[in-house]
Amino acid sequence: MDYTNLIAGSWENTSDGCANVNPSDIPDVIGMAALSETADMDRAVASARTAAADWAQATPQMRFDVLDFIGSEILARQAELGQLLSREEGKTLPEGIGEAARAGQIFKFFAGECLRQTGDRLASVRPGVEVDVTRAPVGVVGLITPWNFPIAIPAWKIAPALAYGNAVVLKPAELTPGCAWALAEIISRSGLPEGVFNIVFGKGASVGQHLVDHPDVDAVSFTGSVPTGRAIAAACAKTLKKVQLEMGGKNPMVVLDDADLDLAVAACLNGAFFSTGQRCTASSRLIVTEGIHDRFVAALTTAMQGLKVGNALEAGIQMGPVVDARQLEQNLSYLKIAADEGGTVIGGERLTLAQEGFYMAPALVSETSNDMRINREEVFGPVASVLRARDYDEALALANDSAFGLSAGICTTSLKQASHFKANAEAGMVMVNLPTAGVDYHVPFGGSKGSSYGAREQGSYAAEFYTRVKTAYTLP
């Protein structure tokens, strides 16, 4: 299977390609993705620029029909798309199918948003003058998406961009080209005019950077690492592009003495280890108060060690492989650093299974302090650390002592503590008695501090990034 660029409505291959490898079964090469050059990106941006004006004038019904078609086909093919996702990224099959379904739901939601766009008509302070406040498309939007949610994240960027009348150039992650291509193929048959949506595969350092720097791109939305996000923000500032960044997380889950132990263990097991911990919202710091600490660590260790690790496509598997060799090496290196700094590492060994893959056991690091690297830096794997806190006040202070602020959670039966935590946790999203990972598609997504920059993603709040406010005055 060749994953080719879509530029101005035509599928185009390149002379070089990059293998799409199954992390559950390394000899299984799923396909070859185009390795584009900057000239390919230039043509994609030019195509989007040419198509942008007409699409900006498209009727709400036309936009609805396009997005509804895309969402309907994704939902109809969710099992097929979910299998592809699990094969190329390593999520378990139920997780892969669930993500594919979420992508369909996102397009359906934004199809509705096409018909729900609103504005304001106001009286001017000057007699007889009318004021209209409306939203206009930004223009050409460059989208750069990560490998860990290879269909959902492209969906939650593409869908609002199109719904609000923008033209799009997508540069998907190199590790997971299959889902992005499958989504692009559906979009290509949706009735969308040629050139409104374009996809260019290739290296982030070359074609991705060229997309960010391109003078004909009006806005850039990026999800990925903090260093890359900071570099993109600096580059966009030079040309005054709008920029939206979703970056890392070092998300705390506070477990208080009064918590339901079984519920807390289940929430932390899900948040830390499902999707192989490869979620920016994963519960990576478990902050546990004295009275429940030892019982919690023992119970979570038992639950963690009971997880069935294996080929993502096999029935009954609860945790798939790490996405690639480099990520696996990074995970293992952080566990060594944690042990060298005095932590007690439980699990985390490299696994050799029947099929050759990037497998590791989930890991818990106990007896840590918040100044250790395992608690300061994002690992992005099935690794969680435990911090001991004297009481709620210290737990809250530890939770907020981070350069990140994406998601935070608390397990407690106290309404007072839960309410205080919701108000005082320095995070964009707060969960009470729920995993820190797992969000809805119709409400805003994003964080504070080093986790996010710019307008929120998802839900009706997506309009803040994908549109510009226009104020018009009329003297009838």
Automatic annotation (TrEMBL):
CDD domains from the UniProt entry: ALDH_KGSADH-YcbD
Domain of life of the native organism: Bacteria
Pfam families: Aldedh
Residues the record marks as active site: E246
SUPFAM superfamilies: ALDH-like
Residue ranges of every copy of the Aldehyde dehydrogenase domain listed in the record: 17-471
Record keywords: Oxidoreductase
InterPro entries tied to this protein: Ald_DH/histidinol_DH (IPR016161), Ald_DH_C (IPR016163), Ald_DH_CS_CYS (IPR016160), Ald_DH_CS_GLU (IPR029510), Ald_DH_N (IPR016162), Aldehyde_DH_dom (IPR015590)
UniProt xrefs under PANTHER family: ALDEHYDE DEHYDROGENASE-RELATED
Family (UniProt): Belongs to the aldehyde dehydrogenase family.
Protein name, as recorded: Aldehyde dehydrogenase family protein
Record lineage: Bacteria, Pseudomonadati, Pseudomonadota, Alphaproteobacteria, Rhodobacterales
